[in-house]
Design brief:
460 residues; alpha/beta; c-terminal autoproteolytic domain of nucleoporin nup98; Rossmann fold; 2 domains; seven-stranded antiparallel β-sheet; seven-stranded mixed β-sheet; 19 helices; elongated; magnesium; RNA-mediated gene silencing
Length: 460
């Protein structure tokens, strides 16, 4: 299996300095499953290409990873692992380019910190989700993606293998970390046993780019071999990281491409804030506030003079305090904010007397049997003038390469399609004396709709 990394930043041979592999030598690195080689097919001032070639020893792989290879004895020796870029290549990349992945260079620190014109080539990547999933995973990271299905003779008549070409201006360390995480995600399989230590690897390697990625749920699920407890641990860690990402990372260069350039959670927050502003609300109750992403946007808007965030998790409240930096807030800003621990399914006098309440990506975390309790608490007892509810559109999941029964988050109890959400929203509005309008949030697909659906309830 083969990975090539090309740059045209002059002098291009400085790529060798960042990778810590000299262009004039061929180097080999023993792995438990074979041998990795690094060489430079071209090395000039204007263009330089480093190649990582992994030669897999099928017999050694079968002996070393018999427990995870599965299948009958023949399939352990005859399979696509020596040819297709999967978790084996990710492991080799992580070890061979370990220093480059840190983003630190003693002799060229400015080069290590800079975005470079890079081209990545992967001739055969096994991908459960096809070329579209490759585009959905890499395009939000700033890559220009070319992905084409290719046959791998002898293994797959209806090929799941993709020729991947990436081009963009990216820090080399970021590019390597993205490949390290996403190669096993594309394959949706790992050749080794997955334990809790993989959560640290994922968060450490993903960092801020993963926390802001619109498919971070899919990435975490596949990287962690669909182990739900590990996914929850990863989501908690990523939620904290999401708050530390600089806002400039998500800005589009022009209005026409803004929606495609912004992560979905930021588009969603913008839609909710716009709905609240249109309602004329001055006081807002954010139910299930999590780590405070919506609250931060509300605090930045002077139209909202009283903001309360409530969450059943004391840990979430602590995360919100840290993310919002309440200890450093100005007195004027802090006077507009209250954070409380409380459950959306239990009557709470503190939820009363607000112009608007928000349930942003909350209802799908409730067991269906608890929905009536939530409806009574919010619509029947708190009774704000406006209630804004957002939830995933299950029909859009296929556009993320997900199967029919997959959900976007390990803690989701259900996900509604558009008809189901409209039916629920209409029934709640009729029962509690509200009017409701349904809106889509995010990029519109002609068949699947939008990734998020939003209901805006106004008290009749």
């Amino acid at each position: 299996m083969l990975l090539t990394i090309t740059t045209t930043a002059r002098p291009a041979t400085d790529l060798g300095r960042l990778l810590r592999k000299h262009p004039d030598r061929v180097q080999s690195f023993e792995q438990t499953f074979g041998t990795a080689w690094v060489c430079y097919p071209e090395a000039g001032e204007d263009r330089c290409t480093a190649a990582l070639l992994l030669e897999v020893d099928a017999a050694r792989l079968a002996r070393s990873h018999a427990r995870s290879s599965g299948g009958d004895s023949l399939s352990r020796y005859v399979n696509d692992r020596p040819y297709a870029a999967s978790s084996l290549l990710a492991v080799a990349l992580g070890k061979v380019f370990s220093t480059a992945r840190t983003g630190v260079s003693e002799d060229r620190p400015e080069l290590a910190a800079a975005a470079l014109p890079l081209e990545i080539g992967l001739p055969a990547v096994p991908c459960t989700g096809g070329p579209q999933l490759v585009r959905d995973l890499f395009a939000p990271l700033g890559w220009e993606v070319r992905a084409e299905a290719v046959p791998l003779p002898g293994f797959d008549a209806d090929s799941r293998y993709v020729d991947v070409r990436l081009r963009g201006e990216v820090r080399l360390s970021d590019a390597l970390s993205q490949l390290y995480v996403l190669l096993p995600v594309l394959d949706d399989a790992k050749h080794y046993w997955v334990d809790i230590g993989e959560v640290d690897k994922l968060v450490r390697s993903g960092g801020e780019w993963l926390a802001a990625h619109p498919l971070r749920g899919l990435i975490a699920a596949r990287y962690l071999a669909h182990r739900k407890s590990y996914e929850r641990a990863a989501f908690d860690r990523l939620a904290e990281l999401a708050e530390t990402a600089g806002p400039e990372a998500d800005l589009a260069e022009d209005a026409e491409t803004a929606e495609q350039s912004l992560p979905l959670h930021r588009i969603r927050i913008g839609a909710v804030v716009d709905a609240l502003a249109a309602s004329g609300a001055a006081s807002v109750l954010d139910l299930g506030c999590g780590s405070g992403k919506l609250i931060a946007a509300l605090l930045d808007d002077p139209r909202f003079t009283r903001i309360t965030g409530a969450d059943v998790s004391s840990r979430a409240i602590g995360m919100a305090e840290r993310a919002l930096r309440t200890d450093r807030m100005s007195e004027r800003r802090r006077s507009r904010l209250t954070l409380v621990q409380g459950s959306v399914v239990y009557r709470d006098k503190r939820f009363a007397d607000y112009d608007a309440a928000v349930l942003m990506e909350v209802v799908e975390h409730l067991d269906p049997g608890r929905l009536p309790a939530m409806e009574r608490v919010v619509f029947g007892e708190a009774r704000p003038r406006t209630v804004v509810v957002t939830t995933p559109n299950a029909e859009f999941n296929a556009r993320y390469g997900m199967g029919g029964h997959e959900m976007r988050h390990a803690d989701h109890r259900f996900e509604w399609d558009r008809a189901e959400f409209a039916a629920w929203a209409g029934a709640v509005a009729d029962r509690y004396g509200y009017r409701v309008r349904i809106e889509g949030v995010g990029t519109v697909d002609p068949e699947a709709g939008t990734p998020t659906q939003m209901g805006v309830f106004d008290r009749a």
